[in-house]
Amino acid sequence: MKEVRFYKYAALILFVLNIALLAILTFGIVNRPPPPGMRGEYFREKAINILNLDEGQQKQFKESADKHLTKIRSISGKQKQFIETYFGSLYNDSITTTADDLPIEMQKLEAEKIKYTYQHLEEVQAILRADQQEAFETFVNELVGMIMNNPKKNKKDRRK
What we know:
The chain is mainly α. It contains 6 helices and no strands. It folds into 2 domains: 1-32; 35-159, Four Helix Bundle (Hemerythrin (Met), subunit A) (Up-down Bundle). It has helices at residues 2-27, 39-51, 55-88, 101-127, 133-147, 155-159. It is flat and about 80 Å long.
């Protein structure tokens, strides 16, 4: 009889542990980064907090961010289309591209992304008050970390 009681308690404890594990995996205790498609919205709110923007600044920031995002998505679409065409030439003889086309075109498109991002950062810096300028470096480092898929990287901390 004691063995049956032991197995009942053991089964109950294992059941509770399984439920707890499922809850942790489903709802997550750890603050996970958002999925790639959500990073822009997530970072926008994070940037507003880092820079401590007031309502008027938030409006200007969001307008600039929307304009920037539209440009970046447009360029990314061109990159995707170009890559599909380039690799499609492997099996479709009607598509004519040379091996040199891809690197040159991709460099041009990446340079455009960098240029538009720099312009966006200049616009953001221009809307900041003097007391917010110090946070701008943190904002830029966080943005670069997100772009490079390394959100933990903070160059300011590494220099010290």
